[in-house]
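User:
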Amino acid sequence: MTQPDDAALLAAELLARRWLPRQHPRVRRALVDADLWAAVQDRLAAVGLRLVDNIYADHVTVALLRPVENAVFGDTGLATHNNIDLPRDAISLLVVLWALIVLPKRERQAARQGDAGQAEMFAAERPLPAAQQTSPLVAYRALLADFGTQLGRKTRLDANLKRLENHGFIVRRGDDIAEGPLLDLLLDYDVLAPRVLEGTLAEVLQRARQRVLVEPDALPVDTPGPDAEASTTD
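Assistant: Predicted structure:
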């Protein structure tokens, strides 16, 4: 049997684990080695997948190629609000948590990246801070108080938080909710951010933001096991 190369090993590990931290040795190499990156994309494309990376996220993952979505899910599946069988209130909760976590995180990352003054034209640009360092936590009790009625009250909220955790969108840290590996990878920021910031959710989130957000702590990077479940498109 032929020994698998680095591209095959990275593709296989992504398929087995569904996401990997950017600091993973093979991921780090792929991020700076254009040939390896292209080889991994080719391996994944052979089975209808693509490698998903986002400089604002601490992980990479895989998602379906657009041309194969219809063949996999069919017209009915693509017409639904999601393809991982989340109920509508879970999708609403996911959008709320995305807005409370990802939007302020992106603001902090962008501010850190661009805080060198114009006078420092030739100064080295400070590196983009990791999501782990800038991602805020959401207080569970405040989330329940502010959104519990709209999202099914405590029993339903707890069940949907568990669903989102199982799918890799969030991580629970005691009574706090943190960004999961897929939260800023599989939700399209460019599409979702304007809808949240300019839509009806904006005013509600503005009032709730001060209550539910906690300053980010140093969160450990989780390495998910092969039984981690998630199947979606971004």
